[in-house]
Amino acid sequence: MTSVQVDKQHDGTDGAVDGGEGYQRGLGARQIQMIAIGGAIGTGLFLGAGKAIAKAGPSLILAYAIAGLVIFFIMRALGELLMYRPVSGSFAEYAREFVGPFWGFVTGWTYWLFWVVTGITEVTAAATYMTYWWDIPQWISALVFTVILYGANLISVKLFGELEFWFSMVKVTAIIGMILICAGILTIGFSDAGDTASVTHLWDQGGFFPTGIGNTLMTLQIVMFAFLAVELVGVTAGESKDPKTVLPKAINTVPWRIAVFYVGALIMILSVVPWTEFQPGVSPFVAAFQKMGLGVGAAIVNFVVLTAALSSCNSGMYSTGRMLRDLALNGQGPKVFTKLTKNGTPLLGLTFSASLMLVGVWINYVAPGKAFEYVVSFATISGMWAWIMILVCQIRYRAKANRGELPESTFKAPGAPYTSWFALLFIGMVIVMMGIDEGARVSLYAAPVWGLVLGVSYLVLKARNPEGAAFAKRS
Question: What residues does the Amino acid permease/ SLC12A domain cover (predicted)?
Answer without folding.
Answer: 32-462
